[in-house]
Structures are given as structure tokens and as C-alpha cells.
Design brief:
The complex is a heterodimer of chains A (110) and B (119). Chain A is globular. Helices cover 0% and strands 44% of the residues of chain A. With 110 residues, chain A is mainly beta. Chain A has strands spanning 9-12, 18-23, 35-40, 47-50, 64-69, 72-77, 86-93, 99-101, 105-109. Chain A is built from no helices and nine strands. In chain A, a hairpin with a 5-residue loop joins β7 and β8 (99-101). Chain B has 119 residues and is an all-beta fold. Chain B is built from no helices and eleven strands. Chain B is globular and about 40 Å long. The model of chain B has no long low-confidence stretch (mean pLDDT 97). Classes of the chains: A mainly beta (110), B mainly beta (119). The interface between A and B is medium-sized, with 28 and 25 residues.
């Protein structure tokens, strides 16, 4: 199972919005509404931010939103804040009943 | 509160085995699965597999088939991940995470266990 494709880095200024893409195939992202997004700060464990494409767990800011079109899922962060600077990973369920992660995207808040 | 606490760091020689534990608290252990994910130094997340704490069913990443075994002990609400025939490229932080329902909804995560493979 190949990793999902994410941009290596994105950046934005405080208050702006950014979008991170996550491209897979019809055997993973495109085939199921089981895409999740994780935020990871340096030296910390990942934190679930979005699940099942567009659902936010309790306690996650509504500045974070998710969507999907075809084989590509997206995470949008609006009203960027300094504490949003982190690595972000997408993940998907696959047709072999397994999981797969994207390569990760480093978000820099300028 | 829901919490997963993992065992401490390990240093192993190539060819050896390692067994990492993940003790759950704050929820009914058998109602959810446990997934294992690793992260090599400076690299991204890699899904290793998951296990149902209800019936012990497992699904492992193809590249680890034959070297990894995931188990649970429901009497102590603890999950285990054993990796055998260790190589230097197995050096990583190993995480356990509670798996909610279908898909890849993992929440929360353990604190991670650093496994170093070095001669």
C-alpha cells in the first residue's frame, strides 16, 4: 500500500486560511468516507483533528474543516494562529481493510 | 479520562525482538480496537496494524507480515505489539492508539515508546 500524497510544506500568515491536500486512489481515499487528519507538534503524539472526512472530535476548534472530492481529501484551517504550526497527516481506510497515512505536511505560520 | 500509557524505551541488537505494552484506562477496553503506528526519526507516520480488543482479530501491514504480532490481555486492559528480527530501520517511536469504529479514527494516542536497534 503506497502512502497517500501530501505537499511537503505549506505556509500562511496569522488570520489567513490554508488548505492541505491528500491524494490517494479509488482503493482508499476515493472508495471510502474514512479519511482522518492528525496534528503533530514536535516531540508529541499525534492528535485527531478530523475523522470520517469532515467530522470534528469534541474539543477541536471549528477553524479546522475537512472535505473530499474524488480521490483527494483536503484539510482547511481558517483564521491561522501561531499554535497551528505543526505537522499534519492524513490517513485513510483501504480496500485491504488496512490503514495508510500520507507523508505529512509541515505547516509554517509566518 | 481515556488514557493509553506505554512501556518505556528499549535498546535492542539487530536480530532481537521487542515487545511494547499499552495499558488502557478510562473506557471499556473490549469495546474498541487498538492500532499501532510507528515513526522513524525525522520521518512520517507508518500504519503497522490493528487488533480488535473484543475478539482478537488482527490486520497487519503487508511489509511487516511474519515479523509482527499484536495481542491483548483483557484482564489487564493491555495491548501488546511484538516485533521480531529487528533491523536498524526498525528504529522508531512506536505509538498505540484507540481505534474508534471503522476507518482510521485513532483517539487518543499513547505517549510513544522509542525503540532503538543498534549493534
Amino acid at each position: 500500500q503506497s502512502a497517500l500524497t501530501q505537499p511537503a510544506s505549506v505556509s500562511g500568515s496569522p488570520g489567513q486560511s490554508i488548505t492541505i491536500s491528500c491524494t490517494g486512489t479509488s482503493s482508499d481515499v476515493g472508495g471510502y468516507n474514512y479519511v482522518s487528519w492528525y496534528q503533530q507538534h514536535p516531540g508529541k503524539a499525534p492528535k485527531l483533528m478530523i475523522y470520517d472526512v469532515s467530522n470534528r472530535p469534541s474539543g477541536v476548534s471549528n477553524r479546522f474543516s475537512g472535505s473530499k472530492s474524488g480521490n483527494t481529501a483536503s484539510l482547511t484551517i481558517s483564521g491561522l494562529q501561531a499554535e497551528d504550526e505543526a505537522d499534519y497527516y492524513c490517513s485513510s481506510y483501504t480496500s485491504s481493510s488496512s490503514g495508510v497515512f500520507g507523508g505529512g505536511t509541515k505547516l509554517t505560520v509566518l | 479520562q481515556v488514557q493509553l500509557v506505554q512501556s518505556g524505551a528499549e535498546v535492542k541488537k539487530p536480530g532481537a525482538s521487542v515487545k511494547v505494552s499499552c495499558k488502557a484506562s478510562g473506557y471499556t477496553f473490549t469495546s474498541y480496537g487498538i492500532s499501532w503506528v510507528r515513526q522513524a526519526p525525522g520521518q512520517g507516520l507508518e500504519w503497522m496494524g490493528w487488533i480488535s480488543a473484543y475478539n482478537g482479530n488482527t490486520n497487519y501491514a503487508q511489509k511487516l507480515q511474519g515479523r509482527v504480532t499484536m495481542t491483548t490481555d483483557t484482564s489487564t486492559s493491555t495491548a501488546y505489539m511484538e516485533l521480531r528480527s529487528l533491523r536498524s530501520d526498525d528504529t522508531a517511536v512506536y505509538y498505540c492508539a484507540r481505534k474508534l469504529a471503522a476507518g482510521t479514527r485513532f483517539d487518543p494516542w499513547g505517549q510513544g515508546t522509542l525503540v532503538t536497534v543498534s549493534s
